[in-house]
Specification:
The protein is an alpha+beta fold and 372 residues long. The protein contains 15 helices and nine strands. The protein is 47% helix and 13% strand. The longest helix has 31 residues.
Length: 372
């Protein structure tokens, strides 16, 4: 007698459905938590309890990180501007993580916030990808604020080198997104596995790559690709950030520095069509570069003597704004000082006797920065 095989319950599919349903329930609770957090923030209870802020009280008593508590409060405060998005979340089209990114974006761009446009992006992208798209959105509506934020991140960079008792070098540190992308671009090709018999761990390969890079000094050309539009290069309002392989969107001021005299591959776009692929070579080259090096010899910033091989040729008037390639329009600056002129907002003035004087950006409070 034939027996119908009993169908095994599709365990994976059942668990998948349960996970999605549970996450939607949690997201709805997160929304409720955000509303309560904002109402709580308006009371004086946290103050009476001796906390510095509502976030601080929630962090401690609800057993959360301060970032998680602050995210809930940020969402709660923006709920009246995100009505359609709340609805989309209740329908399961987006998650609470999308709402967090949207609320943070609203905080960053202020009056330029456009829920409809962002909700469309949220529906089409994972929360991580949505965060990336929102960075482009922020650049397009507030290029100056975005560039300032990137410059601030760069100010927090650090690299700690210490020698352990057995002589090993211990390295730890933080690089800003742009600096990090440059380092990764330099290390990645050197850290590739050299074949099927290369059994080194990824981290061992990166360690070897760093040593190899250091051994080659500045003689290794970093082949970094930047994809950008003409609008971004010109710093026009509404332009998205530029893209590189290993970084969040890059601000217009950084792209301007790279385009000044870079050894990076440029891909220039207009209306999504590639119109120019620059080769990885310097803008100032051949006899012109030799003339510039002969005249300046080293970085021309006050008291900086980094050699010409570490320097970029900076254009006083950038070529995107009609500056020419003549030597009078150029000056050698090391990487750090070139950064100060573009992202850092310093100005360079050439005196009558040919000296270069850096002028600090105008600031509204605190000590004026020194030309270090
Ligand atoms: Zn420059
Ligand atoms: Zn310098």
């Amino acid at each position: 007698m034939l027996q119908t095989p009993t169908q095994a319950p599709p365990e994976g599919a059942r668990l998948a459905m349960e996970l999605i349903g549970l996450r939607q329930d949690i997201d709805r609770l997160e929304l409720r938590f955000s509303q309560l957090a904002v109402a709580y923030d308006k009371t004086e209870h946290w103050d009476q309890e001796g906390s510095n802020s509502a976030i601080d009280w929630i962090r401690f008593n609800c057993r959360m990180t301060s970032t998680a508590a602050a995210d809930r409060l940020a969402v709660g405060k923006r709920l009246d501007q995100m009505a359609q998005s709340q609805q989309a979340m209740k329908e399961g089209a987006i998650g609470f993580a999308h709402l967090t990114v949207m609320a943070r974006t609203a905080d960053a761009v202020g009056a330029a916030f456009d829920e409809g446009k962002l909700l469309q992006l949220a529906r089409q992208n994972s929360p991580g990808r949505f965060h990336y798209k929102c960075m482009h959105y922020r650049h397009s509506v507030e290029p100056k604020a975005y560039a300032d934020e990137q410059a601030e991140l760069a100010e927090n960079r650090k690299l700690r080198l210490s020698t352990a008792e057995d002589g090993c070098l211990l390295i730890s540190g933080v690089l800003d997104p742009i600096g990090g992308a440059v380092v990764r671009t330099a290390l990645e090709p050197l850290a590739r596995a050299t074949g099927a018999h290369d059994h080194r761990e990824v981290e061992q390969r990166f360690a070897d790559a760093l040593v190899e890079l250091a051994a080659k000094g500045g003689r290794l050309q970093v082949q970094m690709q930047v994809t950008t539009s003409i609008e971004t290069l010109l710093g026009l309002i509404g332009a998205p950030g530029a893209e590189t392989e290993f970084s969040l969107p890059v601000s217009a001021t950084t792209v301007e520095r790279w385009a000044c005299d870079c050894s990076l591959t440029r891909v220039l776009m207009k209306d999504s069509v590639v119109i120019d692929v620059g080769r990885a070579e310097r803008v100032i080259k051949g006899p012109r570069r030799r003339a510039l090096i002969a005249r300046d010899r080293h970085c021309q910033w006050t008291d900086c003597e980094r050699p010409a091989s570490w320097c970029d040729g900076h254009h006083f008037v950038h070529w995107t704004r009609g500056g020419g390639g003549e030597i009078e329009n150029q000056v050698l600056l090391c990487g750090r000082h070139h950064w100060k002129v573009h992202e850092g907002g310093w100005q360079l003035i050439r005196t009558d006797d040919g000296r270069i004087v850096p002028i600090a950006p105008t600031i509204t409070f605190g000590e004026p920065p020194r030309p270090d």
